[in-house]
Design a protein that fits this description.
single chain, Tetrahydropterin Synthase, Chain A, alpha+beta, 8 strands, 4-stranded antiparallel beta sheet, two-stranded antiparallel ribbon
Length: 341
């Protein structure tokens, strides 16, 4: 409770006392018991109440988040300087103070009436560069510039919200949306769209005595026809992606089968190459053995006989030689000598 409120309360109480004393005096006079000095008491209380009313009318308290515009009967009609926060004195009944809040305010335009400041569908209907209609929901945070309170009052009075902020914001949004195609608005160029709106709001607010605070691009909605076409396009893209995925899956399966077959073929080739290499090594070994045997035979013919004997079965104990051979060859494991029969 500030001082102005207290003074107003005291003035109201003084007038109530005056009225009470008058009623009491009339009542006592009706009963034949007039109230002495009633007129004097009423006069004193009336003067006191009137003085309090005049004092209250001349006292103005400005809150910290306000500035006061003084409307006066003097030339110009308005004091050139706004009242700063605190207690001030103005000429009673000749000057009137209109307080303006310099705190930040929010103005919202939405399709939801409960969220919109005008309590109806207030989304901005705009048209893109390719002719599509979109509905933009947005909020702007702003405040009156304390240095421009007088100018705002002269131009707009208390109509600056609906008379300045709302139409200014709607026009800027429409102009910005018209610079982009419909797909750019809701995808790749949405940030650029927001930046264009912010830059223009800052500039236009500044020349009209307002301070820009923040801007929120809440939502961008499309017409039902375009929304259906976008949905169909997305479905087609999803089906195309699914088909491409299946084709790629089949390609990978075929590639995997090809690699398995190639692996098997490579294994067969490697196995055949190994067998051929082994056979070649065996043939070379046999050739070398034959060469060595031939060399041994050349040096000692009896080596052939030895080789022949070694090839006989191990259980043969006696070997008959031709009749023209004068000897019987002793075999391993036998004893004694044999003669030609």
């Amino acid at each position: 409770m500030n001082l102005v409120t207290i003074v107003n309360f005291l003035g109201f109480a003084a007038w109530a006392a005056v009225l009470g004393i008058i009623v009491l005096a009339v009542t006592r006079a009706a009963r034949g018991r007039p109230l002495r000095s009633a007129v004097a008491i009423v006069a004193v209380l009336a003067v006191f109440a009137l003085a309090l009313n005049v004092l209250a009318a001349g006292m103005v308290f400005i809150q910290p988040n306000e500035r006061g515009v003084v409307v006066t009967i003097r030339e110009g009609g308005i004091r050139p300087q706004a009242l700063q926060p605190g207690l001030h004195w103005v000429v009673p009944f000749a000057e009137n103070v209109i307080p303006y809040s310099i705190a930040r305010q929010t103005y919202t335009m939405s399709v939801v009436p409960e969220e919109s400041d005008v309590y109806r569908d207030d989304a901005v209907e705009a048209r893109t560069s390719d002719g599509q209609v979109v509905h933009v929901e947005a909020s702007v945070i702003y405040a009156i510039n304390p240095a421009d309170v007088i100018d705002v009052h002269v131009r707009w009075q208390n109509r600056y919200t609906n008379g300045l902020v709302r139409p200014l914001l709607r026009g800027i949004i429409r102009d910005a949306v018209a610079q982009f195609g419909v797909e750019e608005v809701y995808s790749s160029k949405r940030t650029e769209l927001t930046n264009i709106i912010i830059e223009e709001l800052e500039r236009r607010f500044a020349v009209n005595g307002l301070e820009y605070g923040d801007f929120v691009l809440r939502n961008i909605a499309f017409s039902a026809e375009y929304a259906d076409s976008v949905e169909q396009k997305q479905i087609a893209e999803q089906l195309a992606q699914q088909a491409a995925f299946i084709v790629e899956q089949r390609r990978q399966e075929a590639e995997q089968a090809r690699q398995v077959a190639q692996g098997r073929a490579d294994a067969v080739v490697i196995e055949a190459q190994g067998a051929a290499q082994a056979r070649l090594i065996q043939a070379e070994a046999e050739a070398q053995a034959l060469a060595l045997l031939a060399e041994a035979l050349a040096q000692n013919p009896n080596v052939l006989t030895l080789e022949y004997i070694q090839k006989l079965a191990p259980n043969i104990q006696v070997m008959l030689v031709p009749t023209d051979n004068p000897f019987l060859l002793p075999l391993p494991g036998t004893s004694g000598s044999f003669s030609n029969p």
